[in-house]
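Query structure, 352 tokens:
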């Protein structure tokens, strides 16, 4: 069941088109991530859903209610949608209790209990209620902002890059905790981010934006393994893109003959592998033959558990860029080693 439906939404600022015909459905109870480079229009789309901006044309429907039909729109405060901005936007002159309870009437029965309940929901100690925002860590400030947004019991929560200012370890932990909280509360969520790994780990539906358009929508695994074009593939992670001749479920390319995921394709095509699909095994030089793919290690970017190994394929021209292969640090071959290159799984064939 869809909770939010966006249809043919367009938005321009003067001569600049920011959104160019956006269509998106968000199922109830789901977590959707809208991901794209800076300037792709993702924050504008989020603000239109929230009611801070109005579309030039197109419709936004929420729970069966038409929120926007072009510039004719329901104001933000009447939509019942929660919003957490990138910086949290806490009121510096108010303590945590007043920030969390900002949207609750002062004379509301049980107001203090509701504030304590919200603190518990976001895993914050009520001992913090008298602190000011500057006395909190970045992660704590984001949780307070989330608690404030939850106070109105919204059916839809909008998150505008809320984890971007956090340290890497805290960012991952906070993201996981927020995802679990919103899911357990049954709140549909839309996250806007430029971080592809964040989108893939947070959401069960990912929408990729580019130049004001949604270029592909699907599950994280589908988009990662079957992107529609090289640009989308590269945005979602590192890629190895090769020209190939495909047919009958196989591709002949620089890595030899490898399986592909589209048995009905034939002819010249571009295929994609993710770096983790390549497996390296160090071999003596004398074992090199024409029955397999071999290369020479030219560089290693040591990263501890996962290293990036540059491999020049034997027989390739000097102008051919080395392959970038991910290898476990404990098994990484040394620079200068001869390695056998094997492919795990199948390659993806891009659409024509």
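Result returned for the query:
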């Amino acid at each position: 069941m869809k909770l939010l439906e966006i249809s043919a939404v367009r938005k321009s600022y003067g001569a600049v088109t920011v959104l160019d015909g956006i269509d998106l459905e968000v199922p109830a109870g789901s977590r959707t991530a809208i991901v794209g480079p800076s300037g792709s229009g993702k924050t504008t789309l989020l603000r239109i859903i929230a009611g801070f901006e109005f579309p030039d044309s197109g419709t936004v429907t929420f729970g069966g209610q038409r929120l926007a039909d072009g510039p004719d729109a329901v104001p933000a405060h009447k939509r019942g949608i929660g919003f957490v901005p990138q910086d949290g936007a806490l009121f510096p002159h108010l303590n945590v209790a007043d920030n969390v309870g900002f949207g609750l009437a002062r004379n509301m029965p049980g107001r203090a209990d509701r504030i304590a309940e919200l603190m518990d929901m976001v895993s914050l100690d009520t001992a913090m209620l008298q602190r000011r925002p500057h006395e909190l860590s970045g992660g704590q400030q984001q949780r307070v902002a989330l608690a404030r947004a939850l106070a109105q019991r919204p059916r839809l929560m909008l998150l505008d890059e809320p984890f971007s200012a956090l340290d890497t370890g805290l960012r991952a932990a906070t993201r996981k905790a927020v995802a679990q909280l919103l899911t357990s509360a049954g709140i549909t969520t839309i996250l806007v981010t430029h971080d592809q790994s964040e989108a893939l780990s947070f959401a069960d539906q990912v929408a990729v934006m580019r130049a004001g358009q949604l270029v592909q929508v699907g599950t994280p695994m589908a988009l990662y393994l079957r992107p529609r074009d090289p640009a989308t593939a590269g945005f979602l992670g590192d890629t190895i893109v090769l020209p190939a001749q495909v047919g009958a479920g196989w591709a002949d390319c620089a890595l030899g003959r490898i399986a592909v995921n589209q048995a009905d394709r034939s002819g010249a095509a571009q295929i994609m592998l993710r770096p983790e699909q390549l497996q390296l095994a160090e071999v003596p030089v004398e074992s090199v033959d024409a029955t397999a793919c071999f290369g020479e290690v030219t560089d290693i970017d040591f990263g501890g558990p996962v290293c990036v190994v540059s491999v020049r394929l034997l027989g390739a021209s000097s102008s051919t860029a080395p392959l970038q292969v991910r290898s476990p640090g404990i098994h990484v071959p040394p620079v200068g080693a001869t390695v056998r290159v094997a492919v795990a799984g199948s390659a993806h064939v891009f659409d024509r």
